[in-house]
Design a protein that fits this description.
The protein has 8 helices and 23 strands. The N and C termini lie far apart (about 90 Å). About 15% of the residues lie in helices and about 35% in strands. β16 and β17 form a beta hairpin. It is α+β, with helices and mostly antiparallel strands. The chain has an 8-stranded antiparallel beta sheet with strand order 12-23-14-19-20-21-16-17, with no helix packed on it. Strands 1-7-3-4 form a 4-stranded antiparallel beta sheet, with no helix packed on it. Strands 13-22-15-18 form a 4-stranded antiparallel beta sheet, with no helix packed on it.
Length: about 425
């Protein structure tokens, strides 16, 4: 016969006595069986624990376990290997060709078995010239196997201590343990500290130092906040009355639309303005205007009688003067008095919008700081009130100037329901 490349037998899961397939040739008494249980414990079966059929074969065969072995190792993994004993039985010229062929097969199978063992052996890399001979038995008994930090040769040491071998600082602290309890104390200092605590309801655990823990109060309400994934979720839990909905800006634009109104989440809104300016070089008086929309944006209401409004302005002079203006039927709400700067602080302040989601007129008030001229040398405080004179939800507002383009920054805040 010829001996083909070796095909290892598959790993079988023991379920009954078998039979279990052997996928390679074998000679009598050369099969070795071992089992590994769920905990990784390896047990080598005795020849009395199984039978091979046929006793030997040039192709494949099977093994059958005894009932006792099958019961003991039920569910474990079964490994079948071969260990051919190298023998030379050819008798020279007085032997037949078949005897030489059988001897060559025997030698080949032995070489295959040896190669399989080498696959599971600890090997050193190519080019490693260090001596890897183990110390004598007498020097190894009761010792720990290690490698010399300089030569890399196998050595036997009595105990591992800091400086004996190369190790991290943390690993070296563990080497200071003299017995199992001290090792556990070094390895599990936090667990030891935890074991010393009396865990109670509505208490949390925090660190007070290296390997030191303590309890703190943790109410049911506090736990509802701890599971929030972000700031928005935390505000929902805390029911924070005001929440910033969005930021908006315009640079020399015709207008600025402020959107994000949501009647399911907010009752009232505040628009905070910073540095509202007109384009430089624009002639004529300029005022800051506001319009509303019931469609979340364009179009914005601009009918000649859609709004009413009233303002009052106080000048910052040594003899302050007060001026007032208003209209009960206009195409926009005029937020500021005439005289809009193109540089400097411009106009800053806030606009309060009350219940724009209600099926009533939408009312608003405002309080603004307005520089009077291009040189930003004078100041007016402008306050006022206005309304959209139509019942229905307002879902966006628009800021624009009566003359020229607008530059500004704005934030929209919502007051929670």
């Amino acid at each position: 016969m010829t001996t083909e490349a070796f095909t290892p037998s598959p790993v079988h899961v023991i379920s009954g006595v078998g039979p279990y397939a052997v996928s390679h040739p074998y000679r009598q008494d050369t099969l070795k069986l071992a089992v590994i249980d769920g905990d990784g414990v390896r047990t080598e079966l005795l020849p009395a624990d199984f039978t091979a059929a046929p006793t030997e074969t040039e192709t494949t065969g099977t093994v059958t376990l005894t009932a006792a072995a099958a019961t003991t190792h039920d569910g474990s993994s079964l490994y079948i290997t071969r260990e051919t004993v190298p023998e030379q039985g050819f008798d020279g010229q007085t032997s037949r060709e078949t005897g030489l062929e059988a001897q060559l097969d025997w030698i080949t199978q032995g070489a295959q078995d040896l190669a399989e063992k080498f696959k599971r052996a600890a090997l050193f890399p190519d080019g490693d010239t260090a001596s890897h001979i183990l110390p004598p038995l007498a020097d190894r008994l009761g010792k720990i196997a290690a490698y010399d930090a300089t030569t890399g040769k196998p050595i036997a040491v009595d105990e591992l201590t800091p400086g004996t071998l190369t190790a991290t600082a943390y690993a070296q602290t563990l080497l200071l343990a003299t017995d199992a309890p001290s090792f556990a104390a070094l390895l599990q200092a936090n667990l030891a500290a935890l074991a010393g605590l009396s865990i109670l309801a509505d208490k949390g655990i925090h660190g007070t130092g290296a390997g030191a823990l303590a309890l703190h109060d943790q109410t049911a309400f506090a736990r509802t906040l701890l599971d929030d994934a972000n700031a928005a979720a935390a505000r929902e839990t805390l029911a924070v009355p005001m929440e910033r909905i969005g930021t908006f800006s315009a640079s020399a634009a015709a207008s600025l639309a402020i959107t994000g109104f949501d009647a399911t989440k907010y009752n009232d809104y505040e628009v905070r303005l910073r540095r509202v300016l007109r384009a430089e070089g624009v002639s004529g008086t300029t005022s800051l205007l506001l319009r509303t929309s019931a469609t979340g944006g364009a179009p914005f209401d601009s009918g000649v009688s859609d709004y009413n409004w009233a303002t009052m302005a106080v000048n910052s002079t040594t003899s302050p003067t007060v001026s007032a203006a208003g209209d009960d039927a206009d195409g926009q709400i005029i937020l500021s008095v005439a005289g809009m700067p193109g540089t400097g602080p411009g106009i800053s302040g806030s606009i309060e919008i009350f219940e724009p989601g209600a099926a009533e007129w939408t009312q608003m008030t405002w309080d603004l700081a307005q520089n009077r001229d291009e040189l930003a040398t004078g100041l007016r405080r402008v306050s006022g009130a206005g309304s959209r004179m139509a019942a229905g939800a307002v879902t966006a507002v628009q800021l624009l100037l009566s003359n020229g383009s607008i530059t500004c920054e704005a934030e929209l805040w919502g007051r929670r329901i």
